[in-house]
Design brief:
Elements (H helix, E strand, L loop, with lengths): L11 H5 L3 H7 L1 E4 L2 E4 L3 H12 L3 H8 L3 H12 L7 E5 L5 H10 L4 E6 L2 H7 L12 E5 L12 E7 L8 H11 E12 L5 H23 L2 H11 L5 H11 L1 E9 L4 E8 L2
Parallel strand pairs: 3-4, 3-6, 4-5, 6-7
Antiparallel strand pairs: 1-2, 7-9, 8-9
Helix pairs in contact: 5-6, 9-10
Length: 272
């Protein structure tokens, strides 16, 4: 895709149209620049991650120049995880956040990686299963919009770079709120819009020219690596996401911006 054809960042109205009310009213949902029937998006997302799962960790490290690990460590520190806590890693994929959380809960705690895509869960197991210190990590295949746990089950619920792929964003956050204990904490680490216009232009060029090229050369899935930055352009901006979390029932919502806004970590607390 040529630079001058790169998708623009969505405006306020465009971002609002990605939220649950509009999706339910129209029966249509976006996955990247594709408009799908509401009930087709899950299958499209599943197909996408089936393709990228085998080299997901390698490509993320390559394309982010390794800085994704700095973001993840900083985000998990914001949660103030304590020994013995029970943690749910929603859309947990290959388990990077779960590993960081596991080291903080210790053997008396429990961390569950929860993801709808079994191939993603499988791709992460070689970096978890052989290590006795990570024996407190478990795996559950399930839908983030219908989390298969009772109310008030977890001390922490976290999601990293996955929530924007849900068909119903607010429903996913509401489910995380439901399974948290009163006073439990949420973390959402997600991509966002760079603040500096010049940096944003460079980021756009990299996202829609270099990333798909490398994705095609290494994985044979160039379109999948064009789709990822497309989904970022329609996700709520940091203040909008803070307001959304507040409406769902979280308080003391705060966020931290990383690398000029490429990534943002939100934290909040479920009202007691």
């Amino acid at each position: 895709m040529a630079l001058w054809k790169n998708p623009r960042w969505f405006d306020d109205r465009g971002r609002q149209e990605q939220l649950d009310d509009h999706v339910t009213a129209t029966g249509r949902a976006r996955f990247g620049l594709r408009t799908l029937q509401e009930n087709e998006k899950v299958r499209a997302v599943m197909h996408h991650f089936n393709r990228v799962a085998p080299k997901y960790d390698f490509m993320n490290t390559l394309l982010s120049f390794g800085i994704q690990y700095v973001w993840k460590r900083a985000a998990v520190r914001m949660l103030g995880i304590r020994p013995g806590e029970k943690i749910l890693d929603v859309c947990g994929g290959t388990g990077d956040l779960a590993i960081l959380a596991s080291r903080r809960t210790g053997p008396s705690g429990r961390v569950l990686i929860y993801d709808i895509n079994w191939q993603m869960l499988t791709a992460g197991r070689p970096k978890i299963d052989p290590h006795p210190a990570l024996a407190n990590i478990g795996y559950v295949q399930g839908d983030a919009e219908r989390i298969a746990f009772p109310d008030n089950s977890f001390d922490v619920a976290m999601v990293g770079f996955g929530i924007r792929n849900l068909t119903h964003l607010q429903r996913g956050f509401s489910e995380m709120h439901r399974v948290l204990k009163p006073g439990g904490r949420i973390l959402c680490l997600e991509f966002s819009r760079p603040a500096n216009p010049l940096f944003r232009t460079l980021y756009d060029f990299y996202s829609f020219n270099i990333m798909p090229l490398l994705g095609g050369l290494i994985t044979g899935a160039s379109q999948s690596y064009a789709c990822l930055p497309e989904t970022i352009r329609m996700f709520p901006l940091p203040d909008e996401l803070s307001a959304l979390l507040g409406r769902i029932g979280f308080q003391r919502v705060d966020y931290r911006v990383f690398t000029n806004g490429i990534a943002v970590a939100h934290v909040g607390v479920k009202r007691g």
